[in-house]
Design goal:
Number of domains of chain A: 2
Number of helices of chain B: 10
Structural class of chain B: alpha+beta
CATH class of the largest domain in chain A: Alpha Beta
Structural class of chain A: alpha/beta
Largest interface: A-B, 68 and 66 residues
Oligomer: heterodimer
Number of strands of chain A: 11
CATH topology of the largest domain in chain A: Peroxisomal Thiolase, Chain A, domain 1
Helix content of chain A: 25-40%
Shape of chain A: globular
Radius of gyration of chain B: 19 Å
Strand content of chain B: 25-35%
Largest sheet of chain B: 5 strands, mixed
Number of strands of chain B: 16
Number of helices of chain A: 7
Distance between the termini of chain A: 12 Å
Strand content of chain A: 25-35%
């Protein structure tokens, strides 16, 4: 018994010329996801935001609460209805982590529906250097299911590296260095071997997850991977010997960050790649190196 | 609304870490660029707060809290199955705010919790209680048997910026002057036969008020800023909290006068006292003891309730079998209630040792 993904939605920057940031992208994706699901939004009891790069680098409140407000979902707790909202930050593994948390919540009988929103956008262009991702917003709607399908298993592993394989941080500069303005700047550092190490970790985690479930990669109909770092979907597909079954949307959307998995799920659902009783493999990779993988039985 | 009646986890250990440097409210107000004619200590009850020294950060406070927590625990680092970091502030050192990898990842590496899944959450001052809610759900579902919820709040940079920009008592940055730095960590485990555990966890986000308090890093200077409509937040909390608390009490099969210790989020003494008066009007009764420890710490964001609980354990104030309510109010606007029965956790702390 696992939670079922009822709907998925993705909004890319190209569809959204007037969007100004991650919150706007997240709200648009969430609206599309709710529309696709056909549910009453007031039945969403849990709302998790798992993007990293947000408007003005806001630290509080949780971006999830601002999205909840924009979506007009249970603005006040009235009667039995109410929504709890918070953020998860787990690098490129945010979406699978949020699925794990939301699935646990629904299994507890805490409600019928949970929504996960992931969006990233360059926060403050004048104070960001080398932003490496394409903007995008994704949303997934989970529903409680008593059937023997849905999210059936998860696995999370960390493969430590000597130095951060991918490191993002806001750094203060006092302006004394020639050519450097004073202020706080969002910066990124990537180990040239991040992709290679990420794929290596992802393969180990996937193999352990499949083995635990007595499955082989041939039992998996589609592989839905993170869409970054650049080249990850192709490299993972090659590593698993399943290039054709691995969804790679980077030629359309570029290297999305936390919203990548929602884009893959939307694509899979729309293109009828989800016949009943087939296994999908969701694979997130992020700094750490952290890997989160989940099995989804349709 | 997120409710959980049949919880089966308990607090196995509590640890804290506070900077040694203390800054009095008198000295803080003396450092203001503009004189605003406000007796902040009298208004809030905050005499002093701890402030990070060079070399201290959100990371070091969280890490040292995790180590303190482990020192009181039966668990070794490699026993931990999950670590959830919950701070608003994310300083790794004086000049760096980290987004990737997660802060929990750094803590995992430093303490050697090689088997732990790790991630960060952010839910403003409700962060640690939200982390407890998530971990409680994991344990209840049998996904994990134990885990750590940790937070290090190096939040006084918003106070530093307020000393430069606040010009009057009407400033929306005034509440930034009440904060202090601190870290806290708790280990939760499956209850088994070791205690009664948590009877209710209940959280809701009143997002109609999500824009009443916004905190973010500065762009042109070091540190951050928090802009808040503090009076409005207080009013909303007074209006909505009693009904939400009542719901939690009903689910726990308790009345407010059976709560031995209420530990609320520590904002200001007058706000807490007004809240208790509102509660008394609503319930026609009050908890037996309301804990206020902000005099020496100020508002330490997501860590306040566990800093207070730790002090109570150390001081031998809380006893086995007593009912405790943890209550948080946070930007969002989040109201969270956790009710649990104190068990043999007390045996590893304070005068009972």
């Amino acid at each position: 018994m696992g939670s079922r993904i009822r709907s998925a939605a993705f909004v890319g920057k190209s569809l959204n010329p007037f969007s100004r940031g991650a919150i706007s992208l997240g709200v648009k994706a969430a609206r599309k996801c709710i529309h696709n699901s056909g549910i009453d939004p007031s039945d969403i009891g849990l709302l998790i935001f798992c993007g990293i790069y947000r408007d003005e680098n806001i630290g509080e409140p949780a971006i999830a609460s601002l999205i909840q407000s924009n979506l007009d979902i249970n603005l006040l707790s009235e009667g039995e209805k109410g929504t709890f909202a918070f953020d998860i930050l787990n690098s490129g593994c945010g979406m699978v982590t949020a699925l794990h948390v939301a699935d646990s919540h629904l299994r507890s009988g805490g409600g019928e529906y949970a929504m996960i929103v992931a969006s990233d956008h360059i926060p403050i262009p004048s104070h960001t250097e080398g932003y490496p991702f394409q903007p995008g917003g994704g949303a997934l709607l989970l529903e409680r299911s008593d059937e023997d399908r849905g999210l059936t298993d998860f696995r999370f592993d960390t493969y430590p590296t000597d130095k951060e394989a991918f490191h993002s941080f806001i750094e203060y500069r006092d302006g004394k260095e020639k050519g450097k303005k004073k202020g706080q700047f969002l910066r990124f550092e990537e180990d040239p071997h991040f992709l290679e190490k990420g794929v290596s970790g992802a393969l180990m985690t996937v193999n352990k997850l499949l083995e635990r479930n007595s499955l082989s990669i041939d039992d998996v109909r589609s592989i839905l991977p993170s869409q970054s770092p650049t080249g990850f979907p192709i490299a993972l597909g090659k590593g698993l010997g399943q290039e054709k079954r691995t969804i790679d949307l980077t030629s359309i959307h570029g290297n999305l960050h936390t919203a990548g998995l929602a884009a893959c799920l939307e694509s899979a659902m729309e293109s009828d790649k989800l016949p009943a009783n087939s296994n999908l493999l969701l694979v997130n990779v992020g700094s750490g190196i952290s890997v989160g993988a989940a099995l989804l039985r349709t | 609304m997120l409710e959980d009646q049949l919880s089966t986890s308990r607090f196995e250990s509590v640890g804290v870490n506070v900077p040694s440097r203390s800054l009095t409210t008198t000295d803080l107000m003396r450092s203001m660029k503009h004189r605003i004619g406000l007796d902040l200590e009298r208004l809030t009850g905050i005499h002093a707060r701890r402030v990070c020294a060079p070399g201290e950060s959100s990371y070091t406070l969280a890490l040292n809290s995790a180590r303190d927590c482990l020192s009181h625990s039966r668990y070794k680092p490699d026993d931990l199955e999950v670590i959830i970091n919950c701070s608003i502030s994310r300083s790794k050192d004086r000049n760096m705010i980290v987004y990737e990898p997660s802060m929990a990842h750094y803590i995992r590496q430093a303490i050697g919790a090689k088997n732990a899944m790790v991630f960060d959450i952010n839910n403003a001052c409700a962060g640690m209680l939200t982390g407890v809610q998530i971990l409680n759900g994991y344990i209840r579902n049998g996904i994990f048997k134990n885990g750590m919820v940790v937070s290090g709040e190096h939040i006084t940079p918003i106070s530093d910026s307020a000393t430069r920009t606040v010009r009057s008592i009407a400033s929306r940055q005034l509440a930034s002057l009440t904060v202090g730095d601190a870290g806290a960590a708790v280990i939760l485990e499956k209850t088994g036969d070791r205690g009664n555990g948590m009877s209710v966890t209940q959280f809701t986000t009143l997002s109609k008020f999500s824009r009443l308090c916004i905190g973010k890093p500065l762009t042109n200077d070091i540190g951050g800023m928090m802009v808040a409509k503090a009076r409005k937040i207080h009013r909303v909390a007074l209006d909505h909290a009693p009904q939400l608390i009542k719901g939690a009490l009903i689910k726990a099969g308790l009345t407010i006068d059976r709560i031995d210790h209420l530990i609320p989020h520590q904002t200001s003494k007058s706000s807490i006292k007004k809240g208790i008066k509102e509660m008394a009007d609503h319930f026609k009764a009050t908890p037996k003891n309301v804990v206020i420890n902000l005099m020496e710490y100020g508002n330490t964001a997501s860590t306040t309730v566990f800093l207070a609980l730790h002090d109570m354990l150390k001081g031998g104030i809380v006893k086995k079998g007593e009912k405790i309510m943890l209550l948080c109010f946070a930007s969002g606007l989040v109201v969270g209630v956790i009710i649990f029965t104190m068990d043999d956790l007390v045996d590893r702390y304070g005068i009972s040792n």
